[in-house]
Amino acid sequence: MNRTNPFDEIEQFFGRTPFRGDRAWGRDLRTTDVDVAEYDDEFVVMADLPGYDREDIDVRATDGRLTISAEHATEHEDSDRRYLRRERRHESVTRSVDLPASVIESDATATFQNGVLTVMLPKETETDPDDGHRIDVE
C-alpha cells in the first residue's frame, strides 16, 4: 500500500508546494528573499539567488518598481540514471519590489557575487521622466 501525507495532498489541491512557492498551470513559480535598504543618496536591494549564474538573471527598473527574474535549466538527461523521483528540472524565480521614492533608473547598477544579487539605485533629486531601464549585472 502506498501511503501519502494528507496535508501534502491538501497543499497541492490549493496550489501550494512544500517549498512555499505558488503553482500555476502545473509549473512552480518561486520567489526570492530580498532586503531593501535606504541610504541618503540611494536604495540598495539584495536578493538571494543561489544556484544561478549571472547570465541567468534579468533585472529591470520601471516606474518605481524593481523586478528581478532568474531562470535556468538543470543538467541534461542521463540515460544511465534511473530516477525514483525527479524535481530538479527547470527553475525560475521572480520578485518585484516597489521602491519608496523615485530613482534614476539609467544610473542603476547591479553586481552578483556568491549567490547574492545587489542592486544600487540612486535616488532622483529632480523630476526627470524615464521609460524604464534594463540593468546589466556585473
UniProtKB/TrEMBL annotation:
PROSITE patterns to which the protein is assigned, alphabetical: SHSP
Entry keywords, A to Z: Stress response
Signal sequence residues: none
Biased composition (Basic and acidic residues): 72-82
Every SHSP domain range: 25-138
Pfam families for the chain: HSP20
Ranges where the record places region Disordered: 70-90
Organism of derivation: Halorubrum aidingense JCM 13560
Cross-referenced Gene3D superfamilies: 2.60.40.790
Alphabetical list of PANTHER family matching this protein: HEAT-SHOCK PROTEIN 20 FAMILY MEMBER (PTHR11527)
Classification lineage: Archaea, Methanobacteriati, Methanobacteriota, Stenosarchaea group, Halobacteria
UniProt KW rRNA-binding keyword: no
Protein name: Heat shock protein Hsp20
Family: Belongs to the small heat shock protein (HSP20) family.
